[in-house]
Amino acid sequence: xxNSLMIGTGEYTTGYVHGQAATSDKKVGVxxxxxxxxxxxxxxxxxxxxGTNGQKFPxxxxxxxxxxxxxxxxxxxxxxxxxxxxxxxxxxxxLAALDELSPGDVVAVFTPDDTHFEIALAAIQRRCHVLIxxxxxxxxxxxxxxxxxxxxxxxxxxxxxxxxxDPIYRDAKDRIAGFGEFSFFNSYMSQPKTQLDTxxxxxxxxxxxxxxxxxxHIDFNAWxxxxxxxxxxxxxxxxTGVATSRDIxxxxxxxxxxxxxxxxxxxxxxxxxTSSWIAPRSDVHSQQRFFYMGHDGxxxxxxxxxxxxxxTDQSGFASPNPLFMKYTPDxxxxxxxxxxxxxxxxxxxxxxxxxxxxxxxxxxxxxxSLATIEDTIVTTAILEAGRMSLDEQKPxxxxxxxxxxxxxxxx
Length: 411
Known about the structure:
The chain is 31% helix and 25% strand. The chain has 411 residues and is an alpha/beta fold. It starts with a strand and ends with a strand.
C-alpha cells in the first residue's frame, strides 16, 4: 500500500485560501479530501503534505477539523507536514518530505506551474509515481526531460485532467471517433475576477490563464483525435486591462488559434481555445463549454449547466456540479463523493500506482486510461507555442520527426 505526499497547500489541495475556506466551489479542496477518503478505505497508508510556509499548517489543520472531520463520519484528517509549523518560508521543504517516501509511493504536485518541473523530477529520481496538475510543465523541453526520466526510473507520471473522467466528456470523446475527420473545435472556459486575488502570488509571474484553463480543452481535443490528427501551427491573441488595473501584470483573456492536420490525408482543421479570469460572478464558478465538428458529425457541451439548479437565502441562485465533487454527506453522515470525476481522476492514479508497486502492472499499461506524460506532450507543445506567440506576436509551427513525434517549436 503506497504512502502519498501532497506538494502544494493551495485551493485545489486544501480549499484553504488567505486564512479561510475558499470562496469558490472548492471550499474543502479536492486532493486532500480524496486522499483522506482513500486512506479511510485502506488504499493509502501515510499521508504527508509539503508547502513553502509552515506557519500556514495550524490554520489548515483547523480548517480540516471543522470542515472535513466534523462534517463527515469517520474521516481522519491527520497528516505529516513540511516544513515545521514555526518555519515562515522554505521553498525546498518538499525535498525533506520526499526523503520520507519509498520507491512506488505517490506524489501529487499542485503548485504554481513554473515549479512543476523541478519538483516532479526530484520525485521521479526517487522512483515515485507522480500526478501533476495541468499543465504538467510549461515547455516542450521540460516535458521531454520528464518523459525520459520517467521511462528510465519505471515511474508512472500523468497530468491530472479530471475532464477525462466526466461521463459526458467521455461519451463525447467516444462519439467523436465516429464523426470522420476533424474539422473545427471551439472552447471557452472562464473563472470570476476573484481568482485574480486568489492567485495573485503567481498570476502573470509563474503562469498565465491559458496554461491554467485552456489546458483543459486542449487536452480534451488532443485526446479525442489522438492518432488521427496533429497540431501544426499556433497563433495567440489576448485582451488586457482588468488584471493590470489591479496591479497584476498579466492578460485577462487569451485565445489560441491552432491549425491541425488530419493524418494521413493532410486535410486541415481549426481549433480555437479561449480562457479568461475576469468573468463576473454568476451561478457557476467556471463557465466551460465546447463545440466540435467533424466531417460527418458535430457535438456541443455546456459543462456548467446540466439542468440542475438550487437557490437558498444564504447563497442565492447557483448551478452546482456534484458530478465533479459531491461535498454533501449522505444520510449517515459519510462522505459520498467517490463517483465524482474530480475524485476518480485521483483515485484511479492511486490505484494504478498501487498496482505497479505490487508488481501486477507496469506504467505502460495505463497509456490508454490515464493522461500519461507520453500522451500529453501535444498539450504542452500547444500551450508553450501559445505563450511564445503572444510574446513575439507571430505564429509558431510545431515540428515532427519521421515517426510522428514532436521535436520542436519553430518561428
